[in-house]
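User: Hi! Is it possible to get a structure for several chains at once, not just one? Here's what I have:
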Amino acid sequence: MLHIGFDDTDSLKGNCTTHLATKIIEKIYNKVEFLDYPRLIRNNPNVPWRTRGNGAIAFTLGVKEEDLNEIISLSIDIIEENHQEDPDTNPGLAVIKGNIPLELKVFAQRALTDVISINDAKTIARKLCFRYHLIGNGRGIIGALAAIGNTLTPQEEDFTFELLTYRISHSIGTKRKVDFESIKKMDRELAPLVFNNIDEETGKAIICPAGLDPVLYGIRGEKAEVLLKALEIVQIEEPMEAYCIFRTNQGTDQHFKYSISAIRNFNTFKGEIEVVDTPKTLVGGHIIFKGMVTESSKIVDVAAFEPSKSFRRIIEKLMIGDKILAYGSVRYKKEFQSFTIQLEKCEIIKIEEQFKEESPFCPNCGKRMTSDGKEKGYKCRKCKYKNRHISKLKIPIEREIQLGVYIPPAQSQRHLVKPLIRYNLPSKNAFHFVNNWWKKYSSN
Ligand code: ATP
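Assistant: Yes, the chains can be modeled jointly so their relative placement is included. Here is the combined structure:
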């Protein structure tokens, strides 16, 4: 058994690590046995040097002993030849032979939530890898190791699939030609076994990325065979170079499974927070309030940003004393010397009773009374009744929020966040291979 992981081969100027994976698959497919789908692992979404969604790839292969070196060399050559030339692109490839050491599994959990240094990753690579290969500063070794260590073992971890289709090189830079009506049809016919195809608030299709990367569209779902059906339904008006189905931690909340309520810059966060200040709307439509982290009593800002759209409407209705389980990322703001939790999801766990005060009604005639001066109680203007012991009425305010889980609409969800549509699905105990889980059509 051989595990090959790699990361950091692309930049915003071009390429995509998943696309490079298809190039390696094409070269090695006939010489190895794939024991798992290629895994597309999303790591800590807050690391500042990510290109997009901090994705890395791992293969788990059965390889004959005599072919080991050839398979590894082929993979390294493809990364050397095809990675994006860019000062910010620092590819890394890791190879583990045999079973995956526990230390690497722990490393992979940490990569979901913390920021790991290149040196820490290199130490692990030196200790555990059969081979590893670095280009530039080799930062990609972090994601490469983490993708291998994150085995998404059924029954232990939730997982989903993504079918990614790729454009021929000539099309890159032009508008993607994917038929919108066919996307809607695919979603209608296959949801909830596919998810996040259409943004529920804008009605827009969200399966096509923007920009120069070679992905034509991506469809996420619960089973590989359902994604092959989706491939048949979605109509395109440009050539497809290839497609490949990846097994992935997207849409699973896996980063929150390992998150804690420590406040560390660029880490993920999960913890109980009590609202200690009324939410405010900032310029640009962001909502922000002061909260106290229950476990540490630390005061932080908690923010729901403008792109989270209707999610903000819930956050702005929170009031002092309410409690939430906050899920998100931590950012240190130097100018305010304070930490902000940027919400990716929120569960309202306590709604504090709130009251407004009003003048009492006259016990004699029923008219609203007025104050008779400080500490003098109330008087009735109509019947002249006075009573210094009558106090203000406390009227409960009807709260416009309910206990429960809230997440931003599909368009502004991070890759790892579990969409609501997945909450009631039965868990998967296994996966099996479909024929044609990848295919190459043409290169030009
Ligand atoms: P794409 O989604 O398009 O594949 P990307 O967003 O994955 O791109 P990369 O270019 O791969 O971005 O850059 C992410 C970098 O962050 C890689 O070098 C990866 O090794 C590194 N990295 C991943 N997880 C962590 C982590 N937890 N701590 C520090 N660095 C990390």
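The pocket of adenosine-5'-triphosphate is lined by residues 7-8, 10, 16-17, 43-44, 47, 49-55, 90, 111, 114-116, 139-140, 142-143, 146 (CB under 6 Å). The CA atoms of residues 278 and 319 lie 6 Å apart.

User: Great, thank you!
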